[in-house]
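# step 3/5: fold
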Amino acid sequence: MSFHNPVLVNKLFNEIPFKKDGIFFDGTAGGGGHLATMIKKSTSGTFYAFDVDKDALQHVALRLLSEGFEGDNPYVKKNITVELHKKNFKYAYELNKKFDVAILDLGISSYQIDKKAKGFSYKSGVNLDMRMDDTLNADAKTVLNVFNKASLINIFMKFAEENKQNSTSLANLIINCREKKRIESSDELNELISQIYGSKKSELQSGLKRIYQAIRITVNDELGSLDLFVHSANEIIASGGYLIVITFHSLEEKVLNNLVDSRNSFKLLGILTPDEDEINSNKRARSAKAHIYRNIK
């Protein structure tokens, strides 16, 4: 099983200069694909890589060692140093650095989707979890079995962009079900979702995708983390520095809009999307958009 197929990795950094002795940041290390590409573009510098998933950091560490780096965090190869941190990217400001290039690849990795034990997938037989950071107290089962009706409705309306009628109906189904038995598996949740969206494959698949997304966003406070990062961007991106954010849905894009409001000094240089070849080789890349900003202050 491939750990993660990073999107747009072949063309993302083509137009971005990597200055000598620069300071670089990957806030979502994942499988290390974007990090490795940035390292190849650099002759020297310091790289900071964050991820909340310990499996991702272990994978990146092994990858660095296999590519000739030495040490045990930090990892060093000639004039390049890499530090790995088990942290959410919203805490980037704690490094007290100004990054010349920073990247966030939002959402969920291929590894997290495919590994049943992570509990993200709506495939049959999955024990629901959805924590990117397995030290979090609340998981998907907490949302489904503890959150009250009003909270569930709000989650489905806000993060699944579902209408109030369907959100209310699903919340009622969840509450009625959990009064008899805790909801713990994908099969149990899928049965409830199917009662809202019916058996037509396209409608059911869309419903499953959006409801699971809503629960996952809630468990990991994904939009809250992005919002905190955006609000700290002026302090952590160097003057003339670049920020790349890869989004996968409109909710993330709405948060990014704050980067170019009157309080910030960022200019959107462009948005890259995968070509057909990349989509054909990596279906999950289809909805990816890489937003490239520059701090023009």
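# step 4/5: annotate
The first strand starts at residue 22 and ends at 26.
# step 5/5: archive (pending)
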